[in-house]
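User: Structure tokens for this complex, please. No commentary.
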Amino acid sequence: MSVLIFTENWDGKFKKLSYELISYGIEIAKKLNTSAVALSIGNVEDDELKVLGKYGIKKVISVKDDRLNNLVNQAYASVISDVAGKENADIVILSNNYSGKALAPGISVKLKAGVVAGAIALPSSFDPFTVSKMTFTGKADTKIIIKSAIKIITLSQNSFEVIESPTDVNIENISIEMKDADFQTEVKDVQKIKGKIILTDAEVVVSGGRGMKSAEHWGEIEELAELLGAATACSRPVSDEGWRPHEEHTGQTGKIIAPNLYIACGISGAIQHLAGVAASKCIVAINKDNEAPIFESADYGIIGDVHKVLPELIKAVKDFKSEG
Amino acid sequence: MNFEFSEEQLMIQQAARDYAQRELIKDVIERDAKAEFPTEHVKNLTELGFMGMVVDTKYDGGGMDTVSYVLAMEEICKVDSSLGVIISVNNSLVCYGIEEFGTEEQKEKYLKPLASGEKLGAFLLSEPEAGSDATHQRTTAEEKDDHYLLNGTKNWITNANCASTYVVIAQTHPEKRHKGINAFLVDKDSPGISLGPHEDKMGMRSSDTHSVMFTDVKVPKENRIGEDGFGFKFAMKTLDGGRIGIAAQALGIASGAMERAIQYSKERKAFGTEIANHQAIAFKLSDMAVKIENARNLCLKSAWLKDNKKPYGLMSAMAKQYAADIAMEVTTEAVQIFGGYGYVKEYHVERLMREAKLTQIYEGTSEVQKIVISRALLRD
Amino acid sequence: MKILVCISNVPDTTTKIKFVDNNTKFDTNGIQWIINPWDELALTRALQLKEESNGAIEKITVINVGLIDSEPTIRKALAIGADDAIRINAEPLDAYSVAAQMAEVIKKDPYDIIMAGIESSDYNGSLVGGMLAEFLDIPSVSSVSSLNIDGGNVELSREISGGKEILETKVPFLAIVQKGIAIDPRIPSMRGIMMARKKPLNVSEPIEVDSLTEYSVYELPKPKSKCKMVDPENVKELIDLLHNEAKII
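Assistant:
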């Protein structure tokens, strides 16, 4: 019995996301009186692996293999399933990000393990094993019971607090035999987004709508995003107009995100848009129209012209940061 | 009685709604301001099959029933009646008449390209001194050896410029009065046809309306529709069906305005609450809804009668008169609910109000419909 | 070449969601059902690929696990342009059982490319596509935002945490697609709508398979507390609130 946590790295480094997963997994292990094990796949130096100890993990299994430098769904799912078997894991935890979404289904079939995708809290009960997630694109939350012996949880980003409890880490480097059949897809090119926060991973998102008036005005959005360490996003009309790429469209058919802070600039807040951002912990709306529906969903609002408010806000953030 | 729509009818309604709400809405205000013909939208709606949707599939049409046509027109006209009238004229005035009364040769040559939308058609009845009164045609079609010679002027012709095929009503035997009238299929590029300037209309500004002048235009004899002297009956029969299209258009204008009014009154606040919570506004919405439901039922009943080959002229006159009149009332009230915002272009309702006005005028004014209805009541 | 598109029957995205039986069941009363939006984008791309293929792609099939009431949604897919459809006559219990049902049918008549939307707008699981690939033992590519076929080679781009990957694969494979693969779903034409009932909709009887999860209780999110307004002349106050009250910066 153990809880296995898949910790993802980015060019050999961990991010807050991984610490969040570890904190979550350790909490579950404590409640079940069992141990938690972290699994790292790819080339991560032992020094970096030790960082995970800060969050209370005692055992880290590391699988270093050049063939695993890119995320190959089949190969990764095989490795995680193998390690889960070796560790006798009955709970496997991943993030509900691109990687988790790519891997959880394969692991589920391999281990015949039920999945709760996008969990938003610790299990509310262990017997039956019950976990909550958002359904109907943010319109409801639902308790899901996993009936299988092995359980998989993919944790929604920013839904669990990082808890520090430093401990010594025991690193186990293992190698896993891999089948060629697991490498059917060949990565030709990777376009890493440098110096930019990934929208679906972001804790803070600054988003612009039609009220921004034109693509040229995005400098303000980007400047504010940079100051806040935020990703940029947009509403559907904006990507339809070609002011921003489709990757930034958040809403019903675009990205569904749940950052800690979502700043909506010149977005009226159509129901389709809100569906994609409703799970945000805190929403700030800036709109000149005091009747805009976005204010119904916002925690904080500023009624005013975004082109006047944004420069002021940028200045206020700069002042705040310089004051420390 | 069965008020349930079929799966296909619902799919057509949804398709029209999707196109209107996704595409037409984007540039409707701009096209209205510039009185610009919606070339791209006509092309897209042609590909989707709207231009000849009620024509039989054997003539390259969509093979849909009139009920579907009403549902589609309502959805299109919630957003853009200029597109609505382009579709309506092509389907119910031009294609319908050829399909119902034309020869196989005429259908092959003229109906197929019109039904597939490859070409557009126009219906030329109104004249400077004869609008809805089709008995007093001044345009003449003089019978020569193997052709007719057309002379005269037609007014307020929708699709006049974009159409390739004209259905022209003209007088061949003035002494026989309305029994001397004929209908002709005329190629728009025939020598002797010229167009007046684009009419700068109050509403439906992106539909293309001109007067058309005929000077010694030769029309082959085989292009006459029906027997000699059939033209008046042809026009009346065609207008019976055309009224359903315009009634559905008026219905769409009204329901489009109501949808906007409902949304606005749930968002806009006055005296500390959403204006929908004020009875003055709530009752306006209630009145709108009842009128619209009545208009919709009249439209659908007319369509149902037509689909079931039952007489529908009286019902379509009722539908056209009622839907047009309530479209004017509903849009006026919608502008009132929006207040100042209703009077500016950004919020659409002022445009819907301008569009509504035309439905009371063209294809038989409300007064003419009342003549049709009352005569039917008083007939022995 | 044959393409299969998995479609899920979901409530219209603008529908108000309600629950019955002490919040244990989703209230389907008065619900309008649609093709899951992401699946519809997958279908749209599949149809484009077929049109671009000069006959190399012979057929687009859609598959759905559902009872008879999902047929209108399936026929919508046929109206949009799919050539035929398979309905597996079972209630979709969870992602695992749905994928297992589909796999059983597909194994008997394999496809070169299988496409599925990244998630469904009802249960937002992002699971069925990946599970199906695993059942079929074929590679899957997730979060695909473009897919092009050039002869025997397939080039895809997918979003990953940290950027974008361009990758190549050979058929058979399964693509789990997201926005970008197509921008707007296709609107069915009159002809398509007329044809929908004439196209084959084959009903396949289900196998015995257990679900691994079940939905127990639904809850509507608590209403948000009222929006606190900040004076546009004093945006510094917003920073204070975010720092001291919301404690997020």
